[in-house]
Amino acid sequence: MAALPVDTPHGLKLKAARETIAELRAAVLSGELTDTALLERGRVSALLSSRLAALNQPSLRPVVNATGIVVHTNLGRSLLPECIFPALLEVAGRYSNLEYNLEMGRRGSRYAHVEDLLCELTGAEAALVVNNNAAAVLITLETLAKGKEVVVSRGELVEIGGSFRIPDVMARSGAVIREVGTTNKTHLEDYEAAIGPDTALLLKVHQSNFSIVGFTKSVPVSNLADLGGRRGLPVFNDLGSGVLVDLSRYGLMHEPTVQEALASGSSVVSFSGDKLLGGPQAGIIVGKKEIIDRIKKNPLNRAVRIDKLTLMALEGVLRLYRDPEKAVKTIPTLNLLTQGLDDIRPRAKRLLARLKALKLDCLDLGFKETLSKAGGGALPLEEVKSVAVTVTPKKGSISTAAIEEALRRNRPPVIVRVEDDAILMDVRTILPGDIPVIAAAFDRLSSVRNVS
Ligand SMILES: *Cc1c(COP(=O)(O)O)cnc(C)c1O
Questions:
Q1: What share of the chain is helix, strand, coil (3-state, %, to 5)?
Q2: pLDDT tens across 38-66, in order?
């Protein structure tokens, strides 16, 4: 204990000591540890120190994403643009006008900081932001259709992952689902025939993470909006990812933009902040003022409220969209997704050169063309050409599984793909600063050296 830093809290010392002893005891009992020299004071003290260091390490920490999946939900989805960091830090440690109207000198609205901006960028009458898009869908359905029927196509009953399913969320909102059409084909007449005295809403869900191809038909939101207009029903469009720039201008597939969804007559549109928008986790709701006002007044709104740091980050990212060309360059999600092979190849070359310089004799190193994915339940059919650095262990040396594990346990962890018994590092999502980190991780693979 005396070897531990003096300012270590007593409880933490105790926890580290108990865990160290428990681990040694288990090793003795299982017969794994038989050499009593390993139980000597100096060695136990060293184990205790490293256990304490591990306990002091933040659990949530940066990793290197070498998977090529740009919006990787398990790896934190979108990276925030560096240019907004100073403003974020400033607000984090100080009082702010979060809910204080500085003009009037009285209570203000936390949504005011992004509402005008969202209206300006999308052409909406009003806007509201909540915790995430799942919350946005829940509160919108609850506000507009609790105890009433919502008409939705059978081809749009999406599961997003992490147990978010449209029919389940609808049930939780108290709305009654009225499925129409079939898996592959839904016609406008199907919606029309389903409308009755209990109908409150027509719902359109963007098939963000899958595609139905072949003999198919779905109803464009503009036709739904006409129908809604005739029958006095609002149309809610869950766009899922939600983009503010036309990605087809940058060589990607066309993804319906928020502006288009509103221009097509959707009464209310919801989308995520951290998918293709490239911001923090948030759910953004834009649309008719009368509807947004009702959602704002819903008591559930307090339960799905957005936090001030998130709000600050969202405002910073949205401001960048005032100049779409610049947004595509400075917002990492869009920048990484729209990089061409000419942008990626030089990084791949640099990484390969760094790895070759390590002279790890039992590994074959090379390049390979590969396909990156957008991820995050967006652009499911899009496969963007990319370059991967491949690492293939020579026969009889280390296994790919062992390399994968060592890289994952590295500080910081390096997350890779394993394909055809080779380690594949898609350079699209490898940031310039990651290259020395990956090289150092391979250098630490001392077992590789031993084998060679
Ligand atoms: C991703 C997605 C959601 C959920 O959004 P989160 O921001 O992850 O909560 C809801 N609907 C659709 C269609 C989606 O693609």
A1: 45, 20, 35
A2: 899 999 999 999 999 999 999 999 999 99
C-alpha to C-alpha distance for 353 and 366, rounded to whole angstroms: 10
> Beta-strand (E) ranges in 109-158?
126-130, 149-153
What residues of the chain score a pLDDT lower than 70?
Answer: 446-452
As beta bridge partners, residue 235 has 202
How many CB atoms are located within 10 Å of the residue 387 CB?
A: 23
The arrangement of secondary structure in 64-75+337-447, i.e. its CATH architecture, is Alpha-Beta Complex (3.90)
| Helix axes 434-443 and 341-356, enclosed angle (nearest 10) | 30
- Cβ of 134 closer than 6 Å to ligand 1, yes or no, is yes
Domain ranges, ordered by start, for the chain: 19-56, 64-75+337-447, 82-330
- Paired residues of 159 in beta bridges: 165
Ligand 1 atom closest to Cα of residue 378: 15
How far apart (Å, rounded) are the C-alpha atoms in residues 164 and 177? 16
Instruction: Kindly state if the Cβ of 77 falls inside 6 Å of ligand 1.
Output: no
330 Cβ neighbours under 8 A, 6+ residues apart: 81, 83, 320
pLDDT tens digits for range 326-359 = 999 999 999 999 999 999 999 999 999 999 999 9
CA of 368 to the centre of ligand 1 (A): 33
Helix (H, G, I), strand (E, B) or coil at 182: coil
- Report whether the peptide linkage leading into residue 412 is cis, meaning its omega lies within 30 degrees of zero: yes
Say if CB 365 and CB 450 are below 8 A apart.
no
Report the atom number in ligand 1 closest to the C-alpha of 137: 10
Instruction: Say yes or no: CB of residue 160 within 6 Å of ligand 1.
Output: yes
Separation CA 129–CA 273 (nearest Å): 9
Contacts of residue 163, Cβ cutoff 8 Å, sequence gap at least 6: none
CA-wise closest residue to 264 among 321, 211, 204, 324: 204
Residues 237/288, Cβ–Cβ less than 8 Å? no
Residue of minimum CA distance from atom 5 in ligand 1? 133
Q: Report the nearest-CA residue for atom 1 of ligand 1.
A: 240
Note the pTM of the prediction, 2 decimals. 0.93
CATH code for residues 82-330: 3.40.640.10
Three-state helix/strand/coil letters over 188-256: HHHHHHHCCCCEEEEEEECCCCCCCCCCCECCCHHHHHHHHHHHCCCEEEEEECCECCCHHHHCCCCCC
